[in-house]
């Protein structure tokens, strides 16, 4: 099965090389475009202040994050890398998330997650809907994916929304119809296999007694073997 990881982050800002840090990281596993239910989620202490503009977006204050594990702690970096494994990583505006994840990895001298592994749903959306708004919110509304659970941006809820959007971008409704059609064909085939079972009330024979006597004589005198006919009940 094709395993992929849908990823989202929350941060203190937009530029890791200017000192902004990752504060929340969430991953969701999908196989063959279906969420498996397995997730990875953690808050991260950025060891710095939280700009008010960023806090308005995700609601994570410096006080809330203080004392949370730092990125270099095994419960964060090792658990994250173990969860991701070697699967492709799906993210919206993937360059942003990749920059922060790889910056945090570089700070602790760990190997980055190379660009070819990342699938950018923003690029997929722009290709499918050129010239349109293709933010995560806009795509959810376009695909009629409910935003009712989300008050502010959060990495885990956004990863769940993105997984639903990714399914639609890859032909979600049509894919479900294909699966339904395949199941229907299987059911029809199974029905046909049982369609010609034994009759509960056999038909009356159409041959006369005289005809059956002539046939028996032919088998006895010409064929000289009635083994085959006995086998089939004649």
Annotation keywords:
Nucleotidyltransferase, domain 5, elongated, alpha/beta, 234 residues
What does this structure look like?
Mean pLDDT is 87; it is low at 182-188. With 234 residues, this protein is of the alpha/beta class. A five-stranded mixed beta sheet has the order 3-2-1-4-5, sandwiched between helices. It has a single domain (3-174), classed as Ribonuclease H-like superfamily/Ribonuclease H (Nucleotidyltransferase, domain 5). α5 (121-128) runs parallel beside α7. It has ten helices and five strands; from the N terminus they run βββαααβαβαααααα. It has helices at residues 52-58, 62-65, 77-84, 94-107, 121-128, 136-142, 155-169, 172-193, 209-223, 227-231, and strands at residues 3-11, 22-31, 34-43, 89-91, 118-120.
Brief sketch in words of this structure:
The chain has helices at residues 52-58, 62-65, 77-84, 94-107, 121-128, 136-142, 155-169, 172-193, 209-223, 227-231, and strands at residues 3-11, 22-31, 34-43, 89-91, 118-120. The chain is α/β, with parallel strands linked by helices. Helix 5 packs parallel to helix 7.
């Amino acid at each position: 099965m094709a395993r992929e990881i849908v990823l989202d982050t929350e941060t203190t800002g937009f530029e890791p090389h200017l000192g902004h840090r990752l504060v929340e990281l969430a991953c969701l596993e999908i196989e063959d475009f279906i969420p498996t239910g397995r997730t990875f989620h953690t808050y991260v202490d950025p060891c710095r202040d939280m700009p008010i503009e960023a806090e308005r977006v995700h609601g994570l204050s410096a006080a809330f994050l203080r004392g949370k594990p730092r990125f270099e702690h095994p419960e964060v970096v090792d658990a994250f890398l173990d969860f991701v494994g070697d699967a492709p990583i799906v993210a919206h505006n993937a360059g942003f998330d990749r920059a922060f994840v790889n910056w945090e990895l570089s700070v602790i001298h760990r190997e980055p997650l190379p660009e070819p592994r990342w699938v950018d749903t923003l690029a997929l959306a722009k290709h499918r809907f050129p010239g349109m708004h293709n933010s995560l919110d806009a795509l959810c509304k376009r695909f009629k994916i409910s935003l009712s659970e989300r008050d502010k941006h959060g990495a885990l809820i956004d990863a769940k929304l993105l997984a639903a959007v990714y399914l639609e971008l890859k032909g979600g409704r049509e894919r479900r119809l294909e699966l339904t059609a395949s199941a229907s064909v299987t059911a029809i085939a199974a029905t046909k296999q049982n369609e010609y079972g034994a009759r509960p009330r056999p038909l009356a024979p159409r041959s006369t007694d005289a005809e059956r006597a002539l046939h028996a004589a032919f088998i006895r005198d010409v064929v000289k073997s009635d083994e085959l006919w006995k086998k089939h009940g004649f």
